[in-house]
Amino acid sequence: MGATYFLSLRSPNTNNTNNAWNLNSNGNLWAVTSDPAEEWPAWSPPLGAHDAYSAGDKVSHNGKHWTSAMDGNVWEPGTYGWDEITE
Protein backbone atom coordinates (compact mmCIF):
# COMPACT_ATOMS: atom_id res chain seq x y z
CA MET A 1 0.00 0.00 0.00
CA GLY A 2 1.27 3.51 -0.76
CA ALA A 3 1.80 6.33 1.68
CA THR A 4 -1.16 8.29 3.02
CA TYR A 5 -0.94 12.08 2.80
CA PHE A 6 -2.89 14.91 4.38
CA LEU A 7 -3.02 18.56 3.37
CA SER A 8 -0.84 20.64 5.65
CA LEU A 9 -1.28 24.38 5.75
CA ARG A 10 2.14 24.92 7.32
CA SER A 11 3.41 26.60 4.14
CA PRO A 12 1.52 29.53 2.65
CA ASN A 13 0.66 29.18 -1.02
CA THR A 14 -0.55 32.07 -3.09
CA ASN A 15 -0.80 29.99 -6.26
CA ASN A 16 -4.48 29.84 -7.20
CA THR A 17 -4.07 27.66 -10.29
CA ASN A 18 -5.58 24.19 -10.58
CA ASN A 19 -2.20 22.69 -9.62
CA ALA A 20 -2.23 24.42 -6.23
CA TRP A 21 -3.38 21.23 -4.51
CA ASN A 22 -1.40 18.78 -6.64
CA LEU A 23 1.03 16.67 -4.59
CA ASN A 24 3.56 16.55 -7.41
CA SER A 25 3.67 20.30 -8.04
CA ASN A 26 3.30 21.52 -4.44
CA GLY A 27 4.76 18.80 -2.21
CA ASN A 28 5.52 21.32 0.53
CA LEU A 29 1.77 21.55 1.25
CA TRP A 30 1.47 17.84 1.98
CA ALA A 31 2.80 15.65 4.79
CA VAL A 32 2.86 11.87 5.22
CA THR A 33 0.52 10.53 7.86
CA SER A 34 -0.22 7.09 9.24
CA ASP A 35 -3.22 4.94 8.45
CA PRO A 36 -5.94 5.95 10.95
CA ALA A 37 -7.06 2.31 11.15
CA GLU A 38 -3.64 1.27 12.52
CA GLU A 39 -3.73 1.18 16.35
CA TRP A 40 0.03 1.63 16.89
CA PRO A 41 1.42 3.60 13.91
CA ALA A 42 5.17 4.10 13.66
CA TRP A 43 6.42 7.23 15.42
CA SER A 44 7.68 9.99 13.15
CA PRO A 45 9.37 13.16 14.37
CA PRO A 46 7.02 16.14 14.35
CA LEU A 47 8.09 19.08 12.19
CA GLY A 48 6.71 21.58 14.71
CA ALA A 49 3.78 22.48 16.93
CA HIS A 50 1.29 21.98 14.08
CA ASP A 51 1.86 18.20 14.02
CA ALA A 52 3.03 17.51 17.59
CA TYR A 53 1.47 14.53 19.35
CA SER A 54 -1.49 15.03 21.69
CA ALA A 55 -1.97 13.38 25.08
CA GLY A 56 -3.15 9.81 24.56
CA ASP A 57 -1.77 9.42 21.03
CA LYS A 58 -0.44 5.91 20.43
CA VAL A 59 2.76 5.06 18.53
CA SER A 60 5.22 2.22 18.07
CA HIS A 61 8.94 2.95 18.26
CA ASN A 62 12.00 0.71 18.61
CA GLY A 63 9.83 -2.38 18.97
CA LYS A 64 7.75 -0.95 21.84
CA HIS A 65 4.33 0.68 22.21
CA TRP A 66 4.01 4.17 23.66
CA THR A 67 1.28 6.67 24.54
CA SER A 68 1.89 10.39 24.71
CA ALA A 69 1.63 11.70 28.26
CA MET A 70 1.14 15.32 27.22
CA ASP A 71 -0.22 17.65 24.56
CA GLY A 72 2.28 19.25 22.21
CA ASN A 73 4.67 16.31 22.51
CA VAL A 74 7.62 16.62 20.11
CA TRP A 75 9.96 14.28 22.01
CA GLU A 76 11.13 10.85 20.84
CA PRO A 77 9.44 8.00 22.74
CA GLY A 78 11.71 6.74 25.49
CA THR A 79 13.28 10.12 26.22
CA TYR A 80 10.53 12.31 27.70
CA GLY A 81 6.75 12.73 27.62
CA TRP A 82 5.81 9.14 26.73
CA ASP A 83 4.52 6.17 28.73
CA GLU A 84 5.65 2.71 27.61
CA ILE A 85 2.72 0.30 27.32
CA THR A 86 3.35 -3.33 28.18
CA GLU A 87 0.45 -5.68 27.69
Query: What is the strand content?
Result: 15-25%
Radius of gyration: 15 Å
Count of structural domains: 2
How many strands in all?
5
Provide mean pLDDT, rounded.
Answer: 78
Overall outline? globular
Structural class, please? mainly beta
Please provide a written account of the structure:
The protein is an all-beta fold. It folds into two domains: 33 residues, no CATH class; 53 residues, Ribbon (Seminal Fluid Protein  PDC-109 (Domain B)), CATH 2.10.10. It is 0% helix and 24% strand. It contains no helices and five strands. Strand 3 and strand 4 form a beta hairpin. The protein is globular, with a radius of gyration of 15 Å. The mean pLDDT is 78.
Write the layout of secondary structure elements.
Layout (H helix, E strand, L loop, with lengths): L3 E4 L22 E4 L24 E4 L2 E5 L13 E4 L2
Antiparallel strand pairs: 1-2, 3-4, 4-5
Give the key terms:
87 residues, mainly beta, Seminal Fluid Protein  PDC-109 (Domain B), 2 domains, three-stranded antiparallel sheet, two-stranded antiparallel sheet
Short synopsis of the structure:
This protein is an all-beta fold. Helices cover 0% and strands 24% of the residues. A three-stranded antiparallel β-sheet has the order 3-4-5, with no helix packed on it.
